[in-house]
Amino acid sequence: MTFSDQLLEDGDHIWEAQKAHPFVRELAAGTLDAAAFRHWVTQDYRYLLDYARLFSIAGSKARDEATMTHLLGVAHEVLDHEMDLHREFAADYGISRADLESVEKVPTCVAYTNFLVRTAYEGTIAEIAAALFPCMQGYLDVAEHMAALADGEHRYTPFIDMYTSEEFREATAWCREFVDDCGERFPGEHDAMREAFLTSAKLEYRFWEMAYTLEEWEIA
Ligand SMILES: Cc1ncc(CN)c(N)n1
Predict the structure, then answer these.
(1) Which biological processes are named by the entry's GO terms (predicted)?
(2) Structural domains in the chain plus CATH codes
(3) For a pocket test of ligand 1, which of 47, 77, 170 has the largest count of ligand atoms closer than 8 A to its C-beta?
(4) Is the ipTM of this complex over 0.95?
(5) Residue to substitute in 77, 114, 139 for testing ligand 1 pocket (most ligand atoms within 8 angstroms of CB)
(6) Cα separations (Å) of 43 from 35, 105, 126, 202?
């Protein structure tokens, strides 16, 4: 069993909870309330900026040229391609780019992005790899689950298409190899990697919950 297999086994209950979440099931069916999707898009836009930051910092910590090139390439892909999809979704909802950039993060988005950015600055390359893994593998697995549940095309089909695309699969496969490589090279870091992986996975679950419940600050 590879180290990534072990992590996925440890996080299996979190994966199952994500697949069963009403945001996921209703998005798959095309019945998700527009307000919940809008909340996801605006918060995810803020999330993605820090996610790209994480890849950039990871790139600067990489020991070899190939890993550095790949991680910095992913950062660029997120800023360019993935955030473009969000800009398109937002435009459909009458949200401008300036609006997207000025949205205030709600508590779950603050918690998740702070965790990722802190791991990027303070963690080792192995912890960073483990923290990234649920963001990639989780979205691929959840989107594949959505594709299996979906019955025909609807307004959220581009979301499912994006996260089941060949490019996203390849990026996820690379991330998984990166986790396995770090697991092999740094056996002393397995506990720290597992903790980073599980924290990210739990925050992935919270992110769906945040969007579905339209989470806001209680006090402005
Ligand atoms: C919260 C979250 N996690 C992961 C992904 C996939 N990059 C995303 N867009 N948003």
Answers:
(1) thiamine metabolic process
(2) 3-212 (1.20.910.10)
(3) 47
(4) yes
(5) 139
(6) 12, 6, 27, 17
